[in-house]
Write a sequence for this structure.
């Protein structure tokens, strides 16, 4: 493991963002004459310093990336060891235990928990861990030691198949690194039970981020018909049924995900009110409109249509089109829940896409509620990139 023996010196005038609390160092901010990036390897620990020599904090290096260093100890000189991981984990755990009674939540949310590159989801006695760059991967063992000491889990699953790892050419192994981990892990959200496929499912197997917005479905769906588009394993749809919806249809392109929907419907004894339909969202919604189907509530929670800022125009159009398709299936007076996990799409832009969709669908919308990521996805006030999730509840009139 690399020792913190090297300085990383910034160019004059580029330290303002770090002094304001941000944790990313970009490669074009480095004084490469004094500290050439070629001398560093991924995971090397450095002391980040201003051009005037001021110590700005400890970071680990990713010299081949645009974000070439990630600060894990702002304003301090510290090794990235079990002691530091323990402090960070205790702080993160305190936030989650204050917010939730069930031990089901995102335990670590990267930069917001001052553990850049680390994502950990908790499913009761089990943990699913993602290390999303080569630098943090070098410190896996002290992280695991801290997790085991603090939480004493029954098992830890390490998932290496994230998009960021794939883009960096890193290994995509999925392995149990401690204890034993079943294929399906139980969790409870808003009083509703689920089983998440943590080996083969998307991300860590579950999406905790929309938890607060899903809870707000309850007053809107009792006795109503609901279509859950991009349903995955029924996070929205099964909860809608558990909250009293008269019928729920979950639409997804994945047969495996739809099998998960029915597993979770049966867990909550709502299988008689839940059906599934497989297909692409846009095409299937068009078919359902041609069939004359209508729903009282419709949930659109797509994957991120905008992965990079340069894709904003194209992605905005995709959000507009999918919302237009949803509105054509929504009964007058019905509720549209439009979600976005695209960090580059602002809340105002999502509203604009919805409004343009409403004009094209020859109807009007009134926004009645708004949702955001829950307390297990805390937002770092100096890092706007940590705020990504939107949910907008709108009534069709």
């Amino acid at each position: 493991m690399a020792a913190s023996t090297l300085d990383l010196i910034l160019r004059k005038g580029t330290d303002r963002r770090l002094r304001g609390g941000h944790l990313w160092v970009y490669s074009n901010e480095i004084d490469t004459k004094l500290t050439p990036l070629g001398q560093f390897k991924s995971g090397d620990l450095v002391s980040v310093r201003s051009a005037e020599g001021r110590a700005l904090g400890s970071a680990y290096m990713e010299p081949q990336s645009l974000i070439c260093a990630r600060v894990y100890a702002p304003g301090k000189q510290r090794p990235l060891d079990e002691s530091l991981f323990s402090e960070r984990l205790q702080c993160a755990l305190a936030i989650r235990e204050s917010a939730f009674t069930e031990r089901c939540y995102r335990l670590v949310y990267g930069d917001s928990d001052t553990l850049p590159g680390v994502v950990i989801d908790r499913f009761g006695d089990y943990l699913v861990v993602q290390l999303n760059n080569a630098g943090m991967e070098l410190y896996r063992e002290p992280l695991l030691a801290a997790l085991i000491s603090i939480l004493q889990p029954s098992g830890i699953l390490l998932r290496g198949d994230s998009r960021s790892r794939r883009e960096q050419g890193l290994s995509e192994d999925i392995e149990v690194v401690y204890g034993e981990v079943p294929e399906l892990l139980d969790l409870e959200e808003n009083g509703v039970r689920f089983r998440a496929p943590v080996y083969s499912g998307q991300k860590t197997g579950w999406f905790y981020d929309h938890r607060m917005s899903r809870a707000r479905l309850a007053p809107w769906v009792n006795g109503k018909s609901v279509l859950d588009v991009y349903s995955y394993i029924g996070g929205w749809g099964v909860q809608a049924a558990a909250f009293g919806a008269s019928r729920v249809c979950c639409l997804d392109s994945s047969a495996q995900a739809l099998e998960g929907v029915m597993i979770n419907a049966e867990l909550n004894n709502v299988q008689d009110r839940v059906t599934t339909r497989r297909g692409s969202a846009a095409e299937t919604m068009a078919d359902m409109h041609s069939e004359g189907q209508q729903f009282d509530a419709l949930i659109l929670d797509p994957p991120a249509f905008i992965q990079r800022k340069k894709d904003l125009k194209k992605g905005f159009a995709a959000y507009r089109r999918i919302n237009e398709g949803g509105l054509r299936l929504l009964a007058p007076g019905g509720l549209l829940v439009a979600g976005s996990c695209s960090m580059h799409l602002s809340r105002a832009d999502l509203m604009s896409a919805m409004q343009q969709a409403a004009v094209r669908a020859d109807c009007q919308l009134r926004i009645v509620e708004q949702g955001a990521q829950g307390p297990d996805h805390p937002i770092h006030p100096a890092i706007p990139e940590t705020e990504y999730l939107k949910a907008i509840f709108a009534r069709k009139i």
The longest helix spans residues 82-99.
